[in-house]
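Tutorial handout. Part one gives the primary structure; part two gives the three-dimensional structure as tokens.
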Amino acid sequence: MRAFVTGATGFVGSHVAAALEKAGAELRLLVRSAEKGRNTNIDGLKAELIQGDLREPGSFEAAIAGCDALFHVAADYRLWVRDPREMYQVNVEGTRAMLTAARKYQVRRVIHTSSVATMGFTPNGQPADENSPVSADEMIGPYKRSKFMAEQLAASAAREGLDVVIVNPTTPVGERDRRPTPTGRIVVDFLHKRFPAYVDTGLNLVDVGECARGHVAALERGRSGQRYILGGENLTLKQILDKLAGITGLPSPKLRLPYWVALATGVVDEICTGRIRGREPRVTIDAVRMGKKKMFVTSTKAERELGWEIVPVGDALRRAVEWFRKNNYA
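Part two.
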């Protein structure tokens, strides 16, 4: 099988590419020009590299010809961006271009990597599933809105006859988070002792290696037009920080921050760091607003149809800590 993978130099994408190679697939990977020849997450993989950009369909479209499967993993994953149009161009229009190319070159199956951010969450912390009610109005910020719109494009393509399976990873943790992602920054900030307090919120953490294997399982067992939550453990932020404390020996914060204080901090940080200095803030308004609801989920559907297994995230957090330290993030 020949698989075309976008986002393979990224965090989740690199693990997906490695899982596909282990499964015996022939790899064709889309890389940006700035990444070609650099030390990246795909070093050591036997793959054909295609230089291109999601914002320029002509740079990659023909390379999809002859591929049996397309794994569209690439995304702009930031909770703050100076110009939201950039995010929509990558996440929405890039997805549209990929689906168009897959249809044109008759790719047998597309695995579209969406996000748990597109699910419907409630203030009471009740775990969401693939059928939880949700609307575009509930999508907070450009990242969630753009991923929601991209997922709608994938679902529409499936209804029109293209074989598309949608996977919704929760919050991946593990090694090779080079950017790092907003999730990885939690680990890095903890290692830098930048967590004097915590807020009452929660996430579902998933081992990034298991998440990659879930992508392969979706290729083999998923049903076209369906979406599958790839999740791990539901944990409050305090529980995550306590786990990191146990791994590192660093203290876990004891002070719980009221929501309004966290929101005020986000406003100040966005003004001072974002608008004035032009850098990504550590605390964003959108992140605080998202945190008002615990993003807890159930992966029962993936367990039933994909053979998915819930794996404790302690080992993934330990690997993340070791990788960040080894690579001088902390």
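Part three, for discussion. The two ends are 40 Å apart (CA to CA). The first strand starts at residue 2 and ends at 6.
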